[in-house]
Specification:
The protein is an alpha/beta fold. The protein has helices at about 20-25, 30-35, 55-70, 80-85, 90-105, 125, 135-150, 165-170, 185-210, 230-255, 320-330, 350-365, 410-420, 425-430, 435-440; strands at about 5, 15, 75, 110-115, 155-160, 215-220, 225, 255-260, 260-270, 275-280, 285-290, 300, 335-340, 370-375, 395-400, 405, 420-425. It has one domain (about 5-440): Alpha-Beta Barrel (TIM Barrel). It contains 15 helices and 17 strands. The protein binds beta-D-fucopyranose.
């Protein structure tokens, strides 16, 4: 049997990613909690409830699990609605708790990466009109300053906004996130405001902390023309990808926001990323379809032969990870994979998905792509937005009733990878034997 290892660079960050609303529990002061109370919004009427009870202190045991599993980093988010429950009040005790969490990572020799906005906002921000209203940028930046000031002793890696593209589209075009609008004009306005908010937050963070490294977590969904020869398929794939994949990252590099038929120049917007964060899960094929003007004439679907996740949410297409890293390379900045993973309660697909995706990361590293870290989504099963508890992304399984954690076999797989700082032939043979010949041919 081949004895070999795909090594990663020294100092590579190995971790998992989480977000406040999905793991903390009882976040009753934000727009998602309110959304969960409305009937028909969340699959099965699920609620975040106590979630993983991190606000009750269970982050400690989960950080212990991560550290024991060889993880040397963790990405978590902080909840604006806890820190600033009403416009004129800072809750110092909430900030203390987040400081404790950041210190908790530090004490476990884990590097924290903190997301400042991960899909949720205080109710009073929603009442102002949310991201449709440009006036929310100013309070957002004030909150960012306050949070960075409080955490800077332990944190210097920051994501301003998680997946602004997914946020804008889900909340304002598809209506699956609050406020549930289906309005292209509003979607584009929100995209512009989120891009402006990022730029302003970038500068604010650097003013508070000179050594900060600031980026966004870009959800990348490669969209490839079904028929590469068809100019129509290429056109709709290109339009969709340009708006969904490129808008924010390019905007933050050039300081120019490219909307269909229109450009907006941001005076403070150029070079406002110190790294490129990538959330990659899956990719699409796009066929030109005249009946879909709202989707820029593109019908998206998974290739017929692809393996699908439990609820058909994700197709296992690891080549899209390489595509995404190649996409990121054009910015000439360090790259961090801020999320990647698969929903799989039985852990049937995850071991294979994990190894195949990391193999693509390794390939990119060997072409000298500046990839600095990988954060698996997620550490423990958590509340999956409008899909409620139907999707299980955790390395660790969560019993939502008792809050007990149970180990999936991917826990040991990922621990071996983190501890070896690589993917070995032995690990592959044990956890995903079907990949062995492909990855380690004799
Ligand atoms: C991403 C989100 C994250 C989680 C994963 C599965 O789009 O950033 O919160 O829901 O998908």
């Amino acid at each position: 049997m081949a004895q070999a290892i795909f090594h990663f660079p020294r100092g590579f960050l190995w971790g998992a990613a989480t977000s406040s609303h999905q793991v903390e529990g009882h976040n009753f002061n934000n727009n998602w909690w309110a959304w969960e109370q409305e009937s028909g919004r969340i699959l099965n009427g699920d609620k975040s409830g106590a979630a993983c009870d991190w606000w009750g202190g269970r982050w400690r045991e989960d950080f212990d699990r991560a550290a024991e599993g060889g993880q040397n980093a963790h990405r978590f988010s902080i909840e604006w609605s806890r820190i600033q429950p009403v416009p004129d009040k800072w809750d110092e005790s909430a900030l203390d708790r987040y400081r404790e969490m950041a210190r908790g990572l530090y004490e476990r020799n884990m590097t924290p990466l903190v997301t400042l906005h991960h899909f949720t906002e205080p109710l009073w921000i929603s009442e102002m009109g949310g991201w449709e209203n440009e006036a929310v940028i100013e309070p957002f930046v004030r909150y960012v300053r306050k949070a960075v000031e409080a955490l800077k002793e332990f944190v210097n890696l920051w994501v301003t906004i998680n997946e602004p593209n997914v946020l804008a589209v889900s909340a304002y075009l598809w209506g699956t996130f609050p406020p549930g609008k289906k309005d292209m004009g509003a979607t584009l306005r929100v995209m512009v405001n989120l891009a402006k908010a990022h730029a302003a937050a970038y500068h604010a963070i650097h003013e508070v902390q000179r050594t900060a490294r600031v980026g966004m977590a870009h959800h990348l969904r490669p969209m490839l023309p079904t028929r590469a020869w068809s100019p129509f398929d290429r056109l709709s794939a290109g339009l969709l990808s340009g708006l969904f994949n490129d808008f924010f990252a390019r905007g933050a590099q050039e300081g120019i926001l490219r909307l269909p038929g229109r450009r907006i120049r941001l005076s403070n917007g150029a070079n406002t990323q110190d790294f490129i964060g990538i959330n990659y899960y899956t990719q699409d094929l796009v066929t030109f379809d005249l009946s879909k003007p709202g989707d820029l004439f593109g019908r998206r679907y998974f290739p017929a032969e692809a393996q699908l996740s439990e609820t058909n949410f994700i197709a296992n297409l690891p080549q899209g990870m390489f595509w995404s890293l190649n996409w990121a390379r054009r910015f000439s900045l360090p790259i961090i994979i801020t999320e990647n993973g698969v929903e799989d309660s039985q852990d049937k697909l995850r071991p294979r998905y994990l190894i195949e995706h990391l193999h693509q990361v390794w390939r990119a590293v060997n072409f000298n792509y500046p990839v600095k870290g990988y954060f698996h989504w997620s550490l423990v099963d958590n509340f999956e937005w409008e899909r409620g508890w139907t999707q299980r992304f955790g390395l660790w399984e969560l019993d939502v009733q008792t809050l007990a954690r149970r180990k999936r076999s991917s826990v040991d797989l990922y621990a071996e990878i983190c501890k070896q700082n690589g993917i070995s032939s032995e690990t592959t043979a044990r956890f995903a034997p079907q990949l062995f010949e492909k990855l380690f041919p004799n």
